[in-house]
Every structure is written in C-alpha cells, then in structure tokens.
Amino acid sequence: MTVRIRAELPLPLRFADGWSTPARVVTFDGLADGREHLALRLGPAVRRDPLVRVHSECLTGDVLGSARCDCGPQLRESVERIADVGGYLLYLRQEGRGIGLYAKLDAYALQDDGLDTYEANVALGYGEDERDYTVAAQMLEALGERRVALLTNNPDKAGQLAALGIDVVRRVPTAVHRSASNARYLEAKVRHGHLVGVAPE
Question: Catalyses which reaction (predicted)?
C-alpha cells in the first residue's frame, strides 16, 4: 500500500517554559505498522535538505517531565531548532525504545537495581533497542523529502534511514541535557554508540 498524507492542519505549539511556535501537523494512511505517527512541519519552507528530528515517543519525559532521561529536553530543543531553519519533527509512537510504556517502567525498576537501560530491556526479554524507522522513511517519502539533515546523536537512526532509501546528507548533533538524575542513562547511551557530546562526522 502506498503511504499518503491523510490530513494536514495548523497546530500552534506552546511549551511549559512559555516558548511557542506555529506548526502544521501531518497524518498519514498506509504506514507499515498501522500506528498513528505524526509529522510536524515547522519553520520556513526549505527547498532541499530540511532539518529533521525523528523522535520516539516518551510519555514520561515528553509529557510528565521525567528527569530519568533526556527525551523531554531533546524534544523541546529540536522543535525550536527546526522552527528556526525549517523542517520536520517526526513523532513516532514507539515508547521505551519500542518495548512499550509498561515494559519501560518495568525496566526502570531493574535500572534502580543496577542494570543500565539496555541491560534492563534484555533482562525483560527484549532487544537492547527494538525501534524500527521504516515508518519514518515512509513519512519522509510521502512528504516529498528524500534528502535530509538529521538532528540526532544516534548513528542507528541515520543508518536505518539510509538503508531505507533516505539520503542523510549530514548528522546534526543535539545538545547534551545532562543532570544528576540522567547521568547513568547518558553514559549507557555513549557505551552503546550514541555520539553524545561528540562532534558530527
């Protein structure tokens, strides 16, 4: 089935710190996993190589402000940076690196007993990272964008998108949102290949 845009409409955004920006939300029909993923079109129109953030849903961080991860601050940073230059935020419904909300909370309990975020997923019978970016590639193609600048510290996102036919012309690093509460989490990300605090290739 060909993926197509089903609707696009204005969605003004306002964050808890008071910062706001206009946006347009885009929904899709025909995505590979049948789930309700969103694209936010932000900032000025871009002729080529828009800035794109592929952001995996994190209810605890994005909505509740959890300090255990850096997801909420990365979302806030990404929206502002994309709004400045033009591009898209793809919001993918794959909570907890793809294992789901309850399993992610179970993994938190194991992290409190000493496992890192990846080890906890494995201990629960999942892969270290279950995320698949097929729908992100489908969304970009439906939007007419096959060349992007990717806002990420995760080389796996760039690698998966490239394998799916999206030309990632450059990787743009996000800031490091480190705190006492998420230091171990960020250290685990670095051990597993994230380029946190590392200059882009």
Answer: GTP + 4 H2O = 2,5-diamino-6-hydroxy-4-(5-phosphoribosylamino)-pyrimidine + formate + 2 phosphate + 3 H(+)
